[in-house]
Every structure is written in structure tokens, then in C-alpha cells.
Amino acid sequence: MSSNDYVSIERADGVATLTLRAVGRMPVLSLASGNALADAAAALKDDREIRVVVLRGDNGQFCAGGDIAAIRDALPDPDRLLGPIIDGLHRTVRNLRALPQPVIASVAGSAAGGGMSLAVSCDLIVAASDARFVVGYGALGTSSDGGLSYTLPRRIGANRAMDVILARGLLDAATAHAWGLVARLAEPAALEQETAAYAALLARQPAQVLREFKQLLGDSAEPELSARLDAERAAFLRCAKTEDFSRRVNAFLEKKK
């Protein structure tokens, strides 16, 4: 097992488990944690012993999304200060998609904002029955990052994706499963066990089968995803320069006090 302050990597029986560690109560995406996760994913690309990758959060939560305090600190100069935070998440998404191994998101608690984008960017999702996928972006007055505007419509359809993003604001695990976003549901106490069993099932496939189907099923549109990530970055930064965004970020932090 290897780890740093932000990400731990555990390897066992052909499965690598990446854990985004909690900073305070929940795992969040900051400049440091986003880049640490991107580096951890990149380190697995040429690991011939690993057939499946599991991505999970710490402390009973998947990921609360962006570090709002860091986003507030970036408000004076979003291009210079907020752009690199988005870049870390986008590098993570690109590196996860570039892995030859299928990636399973194991979602406990909430996957919110960038955390939802991160989960949906994975090849498969196993979720606790009480998990929630929270869009979060609209509440802050911004558009998405992490490729959500690209991956979610391709998972659940364009109309449902528009409804979730602009009207519902969240998906419960049961609905996400019924709509095909979540591959398997588990009781909250059994999520880790169920994810491990599912990963082990996939890991029994020959390595070349996993590699080729990952490419056939997931890589055909990768240039489009990369272009969408660039477009999302630009749109997010435009939103971040508005007074409404600043007001909403500060109100969110005041509410947490």
C-alpha cells in the first residue's frame, strides 16, 4: 500500500484501489488532491499486474466536489488561480479514461459536483443504496467541469441528463440504477464487500479481454471528451467571473459556519 496526504493506493489480487482521502469530514477536489489523484491514476497505466481499478472516497463519502474554500480564494483571479484546480480534475478524468483497465467507482454517501463528474467518468459504478449523485453546479451559479456535460447524456440520455442537471439537481441511487447509470447497488454496510466481489469478478477475465473491451466500449469518442473538457473549463471560468458566482460561493461558506 502506498499513500500520501490525499490519495492512497492499495494493490491486491489484480485490483488497485484508489482512495481519495478525506480532508476534514469529506474528500474534496483541490489543486493538491486533484493532481495527486491524476498522478495515482497515471502510475497504474503500465502496471501489468493490475486488471481492474476501483476508485472510492474516504470516511463513508465518495467526494463532495471542489474545495469551496479554495474556490473562494481563487475568486480574485479565476483564470490564474481556479483554472489549475479544474486542470487537476480534468487530468484525472483523462488519465482514468486512458487506463487499459476498467475503472469502477464505488460510491458511498454523496458524489457531488466534481465528485459526481468523477464518478460518472468511470467505466462502471457500484453504489450504496442510500448514495446520492448531486449535480451541485447550479447552486453555485456555474456550469459543469469533469466532463459531466459529455458523459451523463451518454449514460442516461440527453433529455434525462438535462432534467437532472437543470431541474432535479440530484439522482438517488435507486433511480440511477434504474436508468443504467449505476451497474450494481449494495446495502451501505456491504458496499466495500460488494465492490470487491464485483472487481474480483472482472479481474478473472483475461487481461487482453479487459483491455480490448475497454477500448472498444470506451475509447471511440475520447477526442470528443477531451474537447468537451476544454470547453467546460472555459465555460466554468466565465461563470466564475460573475458577481452571482462570488455571492453564491460566499453564501455557501457562511452557511457551513
Query: What is the CATH homologous superfamily assignment?
Result: 2-enoyl-CoA Hydratase, Chain A, domain 1
The total tally of domains equals 1
* Order of strands, widest sheet: 1-2-3-4-5-7-10
Note the quaternary state here: single chain
Structural class: alpha/beta
Shape: globular
Largest sheet: 7 strands, mixed
Architecture per CATH nomenclature, i.e. the level-2 architecture:
Alpha-Beta Complex
Number of helices: 12
Q: Please write the CATH class name.
A: Alpha Beta
- Rounded to an integer, what's the Rg over CA atoms? 17 Å
How far apart are the termini?
Answer: 36 Å
Q: Look at the structure and give the mean pLDDT.
A: 94
Output the helix-strand order.
EEEHEHHEEHEEHHHEHEHHHH
Overall helicity? 40-55%
Fill in the keyword field for this structure.
single chain, 257 residues, alpha/beta, 2-enoyl-CoA Hydratase, Chain A, domain 1, seven-stranded mixed beta sheet, three-stranded mixed beta sheet, 10 strands, globular, Enoyl-CoA hydratase, Enoyl-CoA_hydra/iso, Enoyl-CoA_hyd/isom_CS
Ordered list of secondary-structure elements with their pairings:
Blueprint: E1 2-3, E2 7-12, E3 15-20, H1 31-43, E4 52-57, H2 68-74, H3 78-98, E5 103-107, E6 110-112, H4 114-121, E7 124-128, E8 132-134, H5 137-140, H6 148-156, H7 158-168, E9 170-172, H8 173-178, E10 184-186, H9 191-203, H10 207-218, H11 222-240, H12 243-256
Parallel strand pairs: 3-4, 4-5, 5-7, 6-8, 7-10
Antiparallel strand pairs: 1-2, 2-3, 8-9
Helix pairs in contact: 1-3, 2-3, 2-12, 3-11, 4-6, 6-7
